[in-house]
Amino acid sequence: MAFVNSERRRDYTHHPIPGWGERVISAAFTTQSRHVEESIRAVAVSLSRFWIARGGCTVMASSALFVCLGNICRSPIAEAVFRKMVTEQGVADQWHIDSAGTYGHEAGSPADYRSQACLRKHKLSTNHIAREITKDDFKTFDYIFCMDESNLRDLQRSAKNVSNCKANIDLLGKFDPQKQLIIKDPYYGGDEGFEEVYQQCLRCCKAFLSSVA
Length: 213
Prior knowledge:
This protein has 213 residues and is α/β, with parallel strands linked by helices. The chain has a single domain, classed as Response regulator (Rossmann fold). 42% of the residues lie in helices and 14% in strands. The protein is built from 7 helices and 6 strands. It has helices at 20-28, 31-47, 74-88, 113-121, 135-140, 149-159, 191-212, and strands at 51-54, 57-60, 62-68, 95-101, 143-146, 168-171. The strands form 2 sheets. A 4-stranded parallel beta sheet has the order 4-3-5-6, with helices on both faces. A two-stranded antiparallel ribbon has the order 1-2. Strand 3, helix 3 and strand 4 form a beta-alpha-beta unit. Helix 3 packs parallel to helix 4 and helix 3 crosses helix 7 (191-212). The radius of gyration is 17 Å and the shape is globular. 36% of the residues are buried.
């Protein structure tokens, strides 16, 4: 049973990604291995919380998880944008960054080909494989940023069922200097929708990083 029961579902009968059906079948056979991967990921995030010695001072590693519905459109873009940003600012070793979805139907799939094309346009890339958010994510990530109010409701409802939830859960759009609170799902639209997602994520991630610097 999925950990998060989303209020919104996509019509997957007309999926724009060639070979999607085969990937879903393949993903079904890798459920057990994903459970192992999730456990390893939780340990990795926990380890990242240790104090890191750098140049005579110590800094505490932080962690951010970007979340959308299926983890193939918006959240992989946000993850890639934020990874580049912390790398350019020389603080990549101070962050653990990942993305996930509130709904596991896309688990095992790569990012949407339009998301990948948008990232390539901006000299970015992602090899992220979609996954569903887990209980451990709520316990280990400092920040969980979602894209719309449906995501937020799902996450807040799930967080209530997690003991020792430490994550600060909020809309990524709250950091948008242009006050565009919602980062809309571009799944059913054209390339322009993915570009808009990229630009919003760029603005929001920059503002967020500045706020915690």
